[in-house]
Structure formats: C-alpha cells, structure tokens
C-alpha cells in the first residue's frame, strides 16, 4: 500500500442497503459491487445524512449535517466558505476529480474555471451531457463511466514512484430512474408478462396509526411527487415496481464493473482506497413507500463498503458500529494521512475498522425537510445501538420509536407505550442535545 493511497469514491443514487446480492438479496445480481463487499469491509448500520439527493451529497462532500451546509432541499449549492472534499484534498496535495451527478447548485461544466474553485474538483465531463432525456441514469451512467474509465486508464503508476495521488468521485445515477418509472415512464424497463416478480416485503402495510406528517408526505404533488402515483396500485403493481428497481440496480452495477476493471488493468488497485456508498436509499414497498423523502429504514440505510488492500480486512461485515454520510470525508482524510477540516460533524471510521472493540458512535442523526413551501415542516431521526427515534415538527402523533433489534421492519411504534417512556425520554434528550450542539432549527414536539 502506498503511503498516501489514491482514492476512488463510487456513489450510486437511491440504493438501499439491501440492494446487493452479497447482502443476501436473491432477487437481483450485483457481481461487481459484491466483489467490493468480498474484498473489503461493509458497515451494515450506515445511514445517509438526509434522504434526498442534494442535501445528502452536500453532507458527503463536507462532513457537515444539511442544516449546516445550507442544503436542506434539492437546488441550493453548499454555502460559500464551507470547505468541500475537493478543496480540502487539493490543498493537501491530492489531484481531485469528479465525474457524474453532483446535484448541488448549477451544473458544473468541464473546464479550467472549476479547478481549485469552491468545489475544488476538476470535472471530467458535463454533469448532464446534451441530449440525455430526462436526465436518466440509463443514458448518463455509461457516458460518465466512459470519462472515469479513461481517466483511470491514464493513471498507470510510473517507475519513479513520485506520482501525486488522485481522488476521483465517480457519481452514478441509477437506480434513481425508478422515480420516473413510478411516474409511468414504463419504457425505462420492460417487465415481461412471464417475469417472476419479487414478493412484497413483510412490512408492506403502513404502520398502524401512522403520524399525520407521514400522511402529508404521501400526498405531495410537487417536490418528490412519486407517492401520489401509487395510490391506486394493487399488489401486482408494487411487485412490478420492485422488479424494475432490481433491474436498475443491476444496470449501475455494470458500470461499477467497468470502473473496477479499469482500476485493476491500470495496476492501481493495490494502492487505491475504494469506497462504495449511496446518497440515500429507496422505499422498496416498505410501508407502501416508493423512492425517498421519509425516514424509514429502507430509505435512510445505505451501503457503505470500504476496500484498501493491506489496510482494511477482506470480506468482513460490521453489524455493530453506526456510520453516517458525514463520516465519509474524515475517513478519507484519515487514510490519506491528512487532518480533517475543522468544525465538521463527521468522524473517521478507521479506528473501529482497526479495532472493532472500540465503541464508536453512540448515535447518529438524519435530517428531513420534505416540503419546499414550508421550511418549518421537518423531521429528525436518532439511531442508537438498539432503537430508532423519529420526531416530526407538525401533525398528530408526531413521534415514532422502534426497537430495531426485535422489529427491524419498523412495524410497531413504541412511542406511546407506557413501558417505553424512559427509552423515549432518553432519545428525546439525545435529539435535544444534538439540536443545541449544532444550532439546528428543528423544534421538538411537546412530549
């Protein structure tokens, strides 16, 4: 392993933790992502900082929670003055590059005007090449991968050993195309009439007496309107949707295979830290939910796989430690031997990789702002070792508490059960402490 490894971050879009055949899902086949799982370490308790593209990406690239980046909904760019991954690694002597989806402010264009700017990355290609319809990953991912593969093929190590290490973020789009399929763009994936459709999940039905806030979200018609297209679906429609989501995940796996082959053929694999993760997950029919913008496990629990030959154990699964999207940047810094930016919310996972007996994080926070017309309508999630607490700012029955050890499908809300008052109070207090520590504008519901 090189003193300072090259770094390849592979981002998928909207991939739930379970959407990997290596994680035991028999309804899809992801051999290339599986190869990373088998040659590296997987954190099964990894969570996005926010279950929507822009805010999550802002956190991945800064190590800060969404309310601290200024990106709580899709559209804005990270606030000026906040150090981004590209900028920080450039200042530390790395060569930072980016190919694919960014989804933070205006689309970056190829050219020297971006080099060393606020983002710090050199963009290998346009975010959305001209002529790609509806910004579909089916169209963009092969093109973005072309540029990333060409870059990797040109990075073969030299005999002098004096090469400056690179950081490449390859940010792919699928299985995000499921959003458009739900809204009746059925040509994206053909579902043959004789296809064997996946079964519905065991937690298919909504939580009894679900919070009114969740009902508000089910009826959005702007900013993530996909749920409104499902109200008349029957069970077969839901199973077809699952079939399509699996096929879209397989499409992005093909592109990841091309990246990994290029890395191997260039002789870079042994000296390159590879991280695979996603900006957020997908509803996959749990609680009759599609796509994102809610805090169910399937939507917030994402893949987080890390590989570095000689430094990270192979074929290991960590089912204990909690990881957040804000931990990506400090983890990369740790393995690169550079200090993380000051004032971030994330922490490196390297210590718990090297010593699994360490406690690691006691809890993580995920933020939700699912409406554009009222920025006070928010949700917050606290995940601890055993429990998950969710609080919403509006509506009746605004709290959820789940025992994930005994109820991983989140089917029984314990928040209003007398036996769990103490557990509820402890998690309220944790969230209150986080709100105070980070100047979070979220207002806890009155208990």
TrEMBL record:
The keyword Transferase applies. This is Sulfatase-like hydrolase/transferase. Keywords: Hydrolase, Transferase. Belongs to the sulfatase family. One of its GO terms (molecular function) is transferase activity. It holds the Pfam family Sulfatase. InterPro entries: Alkaline_phosphatase_core_sf (IPR017850), GAG-degrading_sulfatase (IPR051849), Sulfatase_CS (IPR024607), Sulfatase_N (IPR000917). Residues 5-338 form the Sulfatase N-terminal domain. PROSITE patterns: SULFATASE_1.
């Amino acid at each position: 392993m090189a003193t300072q490894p090259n770094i390849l971050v592979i981002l998928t879009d909207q991939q739930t933790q379970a959407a990997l055949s290596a994680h035991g899902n028999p309804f899809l086949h992801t051999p290339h992502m599986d190869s990373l799982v088998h040659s590296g370490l997987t954190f099964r308790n990894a969570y996005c900082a926010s279950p929507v593209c822009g805010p999550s990406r802002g956190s991945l690239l800064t190590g800060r929670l969404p309310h601290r980046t200024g990106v709580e909904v899709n559209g804005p760019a990270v606030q000026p003055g906040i150090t981004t991954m590209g900028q920080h690694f450039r200042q530390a002597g790395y060569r930072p590059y980016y190919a694919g989806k960014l989804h933070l402010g205006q689309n970056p264009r190829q050219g020297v005007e971006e080099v060393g700017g606020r983002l710090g990355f050199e963009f290998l290609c346009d975010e959305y090449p001209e002529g790609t319809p509806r910004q579909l990953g089916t169209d963009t991912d092969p093109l973005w991968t072309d540029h990333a593969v060409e870059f990797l093929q040109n990075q073969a190590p030299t005999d002098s050993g004096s090469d400056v290490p690179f950081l490449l973020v390859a940010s792919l789009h699928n299985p995000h195309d499921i959003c458009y399929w739900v809204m009746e763009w059925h040509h994206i994936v053909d579902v043959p009439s004789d296809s064997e459709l996946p079964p519905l999940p065991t937690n298919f039905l909504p939580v009894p007496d679900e919070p009114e806030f969740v009902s508000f979200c089910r009826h959005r018609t702007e900013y993530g309107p996909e749920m409104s297209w499902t109200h008349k679906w029957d069970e077969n429609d839901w199973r077809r949707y699952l079939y399509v989501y699996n096929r879209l995940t397989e499409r992005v796996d093909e592109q990841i295979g091309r990246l990994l082959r290029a890395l191997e053929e260039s002789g870079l694999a042994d000296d390159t830290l590879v991280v695979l993760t996603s900006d957020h997950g997908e509803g996959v029919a749990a609680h009759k939910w599609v796509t994102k913008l809610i805090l169910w496990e399937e939507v917030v629990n994402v893949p987080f796989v890390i590989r570095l030959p000689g430094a990270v154990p192979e074929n290991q699964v960590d089912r204990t430690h909690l990881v957040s999207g804000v931990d990506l940047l400090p983890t990369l810094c740790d393995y690169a031997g550079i200090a993380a930016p000051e004032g971030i919310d994330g922490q490196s996972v390297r210590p718990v990789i090297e010593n699994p007996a360490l406690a690691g994080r006691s809890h993580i926070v995920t933020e939700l702002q699912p409406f554009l017309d009222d920025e006070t309508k928010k949700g917050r999630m606290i995940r601890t070792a055993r429990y998950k607490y969710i609080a919403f700012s509006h509506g009746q029955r605004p709290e959820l508490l789940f025992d994930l050890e005994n109820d991983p499908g989140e089917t029984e809300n314990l928040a209003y059960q007398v036996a769990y008052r103490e557990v509820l109070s402890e998690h309220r207090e944790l969230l209150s402490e986080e709100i105070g520590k980070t100047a979070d504008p979220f207002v806890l519901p009155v208990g």
